[in-house]
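Need tokens for this chain, all 346 residues.
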Amino acid sequence: MLLNLAAFIIVVAGIMSAKSIIIPFLLAAFLAIICGPPLYWLRTKGVPPFLSIIILVPVLIIIQMVIAGLVGSSLSEFSQNLPFYQARLKEILAGAIAWLEGHGLEVTDKIIMEQFDPGRIMGIAANTLNRMGGLLTNTFMIILTFVFILMEAAGFPDKLRAIAGDRDASLDEYAQITKGVNRYMVLKTVTSLVTGILVAVSLKIIGVDFAGMWGLVAFLLNFVPTVGSIIAAIPAVLLALVQLGPGPATAAAACYLAINVIIGNILEPRIMGSGVGLSPLVIFVSMAFWGWVLGPVGMLLSVPLTMTLKIAMNGNEKTRWLALLLGSNRDAKTILPGSLVDQNPE
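Here are the structure tokens for all 346 residues:
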């Protein structure tokens, strides 16, 4: 037990030390998974594999250039206006404290300003956007790795059979991993894209600055389970409060709430069916763990990374118990019918 724990710690430390190399590879791998369906569609139309890749790469480069232009211009203007936004937030907070004191509520404004520094919140938003811009600088490495992954994908099953020493070896576990992660990534990308577009359009109608950028932030953070949508809403709502006042800020918050309830609680469960096969606690813990190990990219990819580990461990008798711990209650029901799990589905 101690030996396994020590090996786990060493592996995690190695991943953290090499994350500058691992992160572009992971992004390229999951980008290849997302591009799998259009690549397969091109091949069904008779397009040769290499030509299919050549067609996809310029499309990705164009999308990257559009995103980089949007983030770059918005980030520059946002950074210039950041001192004004911070000062306005402090004025609004001071006014709220004065209003509370005017209604007989004793409030120590100094302590509140120290504990809740709105300027710090806007600074965190700016730092997050700076990190996003830094990630775009690795685009060349990501796309290059993406091309090589697609070129190797067709022959990878044969390599696994060669490792197994059996030409007719079953690759059910490999197929289950690729199918599960592919389905999740594609569907999550679609729902995140819809979320980002609706957020951008709603904020544009309300009149909030940088609506396109906040839509992009909503698209990216929608991949982060549980708290991603909340984190995406905070800076945009604060900006609406600073720029337009309490009424538009309330409208912006209501739009975020409505969009995420409709897509997260109604649309996603319908199109994803039984879900990702992970318990809610595991999803939350995996987000915190991969975020600690790999940073913001780890939070974005926490669910597919944990899904991959769960499916891989489920294929080994010695680690199947870990896969069951990571899985949902539905997995336990299939093994223990008639148990307490059936009586308490939650």
